[in-house]
Amino acid sequence: MSQPPNGGDASAAPYVIEKARSSRSRCKTCRRTIPKDGLRIGLLIEGPYGTGYLWHHLGCAARRLFDRVEEAYELKAWEQAKAPPGQLPSLDELRKLRDTAEQSRQKRAQLPYVQVAPSGRAKCKHCEQLIDKGALRVVLGREVRFGDQVRVGPIAVHPRCVAAELQADDCATRAEGLLDALRENSQAISAEQIDAVAAEIGDLD
Ligand SMILES: [Zn+2]
Ligand SMILES: [Zn+2]
After folding, report:
1. CATH number of domain containing 183
2. Quick check: is 35 in a domain?
3. 63 alpha carbon – ligand 1 mean position (Å)
4. Final residue of a domain: which of 46, 80, 105?
5. Based on the number of CB atoms within 10 Å of its own CB, is 1 exposed (0-12), middle (13-18) or buried (19 or more)?
6. Which residues pair with 19 in a beta bridge?
7. How far apart are CA 186 and CA 115, in angstroms?
8. pTM greater than the 0.85 cutoff
9. 155 within domain boundaries
10. 22 C-alpha to center of ligand 2: Å?
11. What tens digit of pLDDT does each residue of 40-74 get?
12. 33: domain range?
């Protein structure tokens, strides 16, 4: 965090867009260093020790916090900069970054898919046994009722539990075309890993 340009009084600008004046700031979105002269956006926050800016790469902010970036552009936040940013990407270019990021997020979340279990704390929703950290697990859809609405939520199961889970009344994933769907939706998983999962799932009919 660094001091706002006017020393921290309540009228500090809500946003600053500038070239990083050093390589000491870290992006709050991706947690990587923002290189000196890299474009960054500061979001004013009020902390226990006064106000200051939390910095993000401008591109990272566009992907995750587009509304804030749009607001910063409306306020011409570069006019607050100590190091004028020079040529800035247009809001339309940043909107494209947002849209692309959005699409790949949706693609990742498309059910069903295979993923590596990020921890050893989650239980298989079929057999209720823990799934080992680092093991491949299959995420299927399960119908969940909210009042008179039915929604489909993701549940993770062992590959060996897939066949039985597909028989459950509230399972929202179909056995037909399952392996093709897993291949299509599991972007971060190699073809060999999918094959291994398919072998564990076994015969589905
Ligand atoms: Zn970043
Ligand atoms: Zn299981």
Report:
1. 3.30.1740.10
2. yes
3. 10
4. 105
5. middle
6. 39
7. 7
8. no
9. yes
10. 51
11. 999 999 888 888 999 999 999 999 999 999 999 99
12. 15-105
